[in-house]
Design brief:
Strand content: 15-25%
Structural class: alpha+beta
Helix content: 55-70%
Order of helices and strands: HEEHEEH
Oligomer: single chain
Length: 198
């Protein structure tokens, strides 16, 4: 019977297994380090990209902030301009309105039959006081005033009989109250108080 000593073969096999396990272990370590390096590099690249994007967005935000401030300044300037235009329009209305009102009153007065003694206007109410040859002249004057564009309504407050002894004449004194379309704008304080009440 032949005896074969397998002990050296088993030792060599064990050494080979240990070497293989050490190689696998080192390969695994190399693979893990490579993987960690790859993830580290990839995350750093992403972080740099995000930082770049953040910086560009911050610059864009600064640009938009400047544009927003410019828009706010333009809105403020537009509002100021609108206010100035309103003031100019009101001033123009105040300048032209009374002149047109007086022209219409003068056109409505019958010539040589009616004389105005006083005329006053306040907040859209026109008060006319004068003398006419008779009540029919006063009625004619009221009818013409009602047809005027600047006057909405005419009311007769009172009439009186006047006697002029030098001329031996009787005449009719009158007081008329008219509502006009022209109204001076309310002062700023009154407007603010009205807004607060609402």
């Amino acid at each position: 019977m032949i005896k074969i000593n397998l002990l050296p073969f088993r030792k060599a096999r064990r050494r080979e297994n240990v070497r293989r396990q050490v190689n696998v272990f080192f390969l695994l370590l190399v693979f893990l380090f490579s993987l960690m390096f790859y993830f580290h590099f990839h995350l750093n690249t992403q972080l740099e990209n995000l930082e770049t994007k953040k910086n560009s967005l911050q610059n864009e935000l600064k640009t938009y902030g400047r544009i927003t401030r410019e828009i706010a300044a333009l809105k403020s300037a537009t509002q100021t301009l609108k206010t100035k235009l309103e003031v100019i329009k009101n001033l123009e209305k105040q300048r032209v309105g009374p002149v047109q009102l007086l022209a219409e009153v003068a056109r409505a007065a019958p010539l040589d039959r009616l004389w105005l003694e006083s005329l006053s206007e306040s907040l859209g109410v026109l008060v006319l006081q004068g003398t006419a040859m008779d009540n029919d002249t006063v009625a004619l004057f009221m009818t013409k005033l009602e047809k005027a564009h600047q006057i909405r309504s005419v009311d007769l407050d009172k009439t009186t009989l006047k006697f002029f002894p030098e001329q031996k004449l009787r005449a009719a004194g009158f007081v008329l109250t008219c509502r006009t379309t022209f109204q001076a704008p309310a002062p700023e304080n009154e407007k603010n108080q009205k807004k607060k009440r609402r």
